[in-house]
Amino acid sequence: GPAVIQSSTAHAGGRDHVQLDDRLLAAPALVEHAQLRVPAGQVAADAPVVALLEEHFFRQEGNRFSYQNILVAEASAAVVGLVLSFGGRDEARLNAAVGAWLEQEAEDDEWYVDALAVFRDWGRQGIGASLLQRAEQRAREHHYPKIALNVAQDNKPAMDLYARRHYAVTGQTLLYQRPHVRMVKTLENGE
Asked: What is the pTM of this model?
């Protein structure tokens, strides 16, 4: 069946419950799928994703890789993709909880998509685009006027996806010693 996007974040007022999938907590299940990729154009095997999976920072609150910042896509009761995003104003605090090796990637006035990944067998089915749309929704909920990401310079399929979703190239940068293209989308309330 189709993948279902579930929030793993807890919201004040109890609107959503923390939903951590056991397979997500058992990180080896994800790590063994080295074919974790981002058909929707993202950065599989980047250092932040590896830290998320191997160091289990997602089990803890208040850091860049916390479950609080993750939305997952599930199909047949299994996690098939995830998006990791957070508010730019929080990045310095979130990074400090992990380590000094993290680079500053977001601006204070933007929501930032740090990682978007879909398991290989589930690629090209709109899951990445749906996860990205949910990240945009979270940005609006937190009153950010724009959403940004960095994509590996050689990842043309990803850049094409983001361009279709109205992300514009605003510059080039080096992140973790790799060339990236910075893309930003201005958010409208109903868009």
From this structure: 0.73
